[in-house]
Amino acid sequence: MLNIENLRAEVEGKEILKGLSLQVNAGEIHAIMGPNGAGKSTLGYVLGGRGNYTPTGGTVTLNGEDLLEMEPDQRAAAGLFLGFQYPVEIPGISNVQFLREALNSQRRVRGEGPLSGAEFLKLARAQADLLGMHHDMLKRPVNVGFSGGEKKRNEMVQMGILGPKLAILDETDSGLDIDALKAVGDGINRIMRAPDKAVILITHYQRLLDYVKPDFVHVLADGRIVRSGGAELAHELEREGYGAIAA
């Protein structure tokens, strides 16, 4: 599904990714862990197409297509979803407005007809119910006044509505209490654990991986993946830290 070969990237002239390679197949969940400043969030932003995060070398393909040549909206239509560590607030635009436009824009690119207001509302309410989010929150401006846990739960609802093929979730566990963490983990499993989907979980800590069991864990340090293993590697990192393992 996703193939990254020798990816290099810079931010404002400073090289952050220094030859990163990773292959993610359909049906797999990959966790990427590493110390602060290693390049974890930069990887997510480069794959999502965020401005000022500039690829300078290497290749990235998504289902055989050159991802780096696509605009961000094209990447989304191709099935990529980027979840943020700190979801942004969008005053004046309700969740329903935002998500209906996003979904119908993607459906147009795929040659599918738009959902009517009633069809979309039925879908949105069903996804909110599955994540334990009150329907009234669908009417509120996107993330405005939401707690940290509510923002992450809302992001899971967004992911459920858009139905991506590849989700890149950047520190989705940041700032969550135990109940919110479990809800987010359950949402990832329900929405993305499927033979035609894949997930890259970017995280500092092992705790989310108690709920979302990864197939592979990678250690990213100094812009490269320096070690890979199974779920047991996350426990090793939790015990020993990054120092010896990432050296």
Structure characterization notes:
α4 packs across α6 (148-162). Strands 6-9-10-3-11-12 form a six-stranded mixed beta sheet, sandwiched between helices. A four-stranded antiparallel beta sheet has the order 2-1-4-5. The two termini are 30 Å apart. With 247 residues, the chain is of the alpha/beta class. The protein has helices spanning 40-48, 72-77, 95-109, 117-131, 136-139, 148-162, 178-192, 232-240, 243-246, and strands spanning 2-11, 14-24, 29-33, 53-62, 65-66, 80-83, 90-94, 141-142, 166-170, 198-202, 216-221, 224-229. The protein is globular. It has a domain at 2-88 and 163-246: P-loop containing nucleotide triphosphate hydrolases (Rossmann fold). Helix content is 37%, strand content 29%.
In brief, what are we looking at here?
This protein has 247 residues and is α/β, with parallel strands linked by helices. The chain has nine helices and twelve strands. The protein has helices at residues 40-48, 72-77, 95-109, 117-131, 136-139, 148-162, 178-192, 232-240, 243-246; strands at 2-11, 14-24, 29-33, 53-62, 65-66, 80-83, 90-94, 141-142, 166-170, 198-202, 216-221, 224-229.
